[in-house]
User: Fold this.
Amino acid sequence: MVERRSPKPRVAGSNPACPAIRMNEGFGVGMIEQLKQFLAEAKSEFKKISWPAPEDIKGSTAVVCVTIFFIMVLLATYDLIISSLMKLIIK
Assistant:
């Protein structure tokens, strides 16, 4: 027996691996169930997260702010030096 395939395998319902939606299910019913399942799994995963303590967050924030301030001062110094050199060269 010869297996027959549709000339358009991406057309829903023409391929046994991708059956057409039955009319009595209604549009979007399966999507609502998938959304419910996704939200339940997401809630389950959020319970597994080990959140940092508020003290750790404050400490990390302080380190970031000090680092940014240091880089800002360093770049401002470089800018001042380079702009002063450029003024000397141009004059």
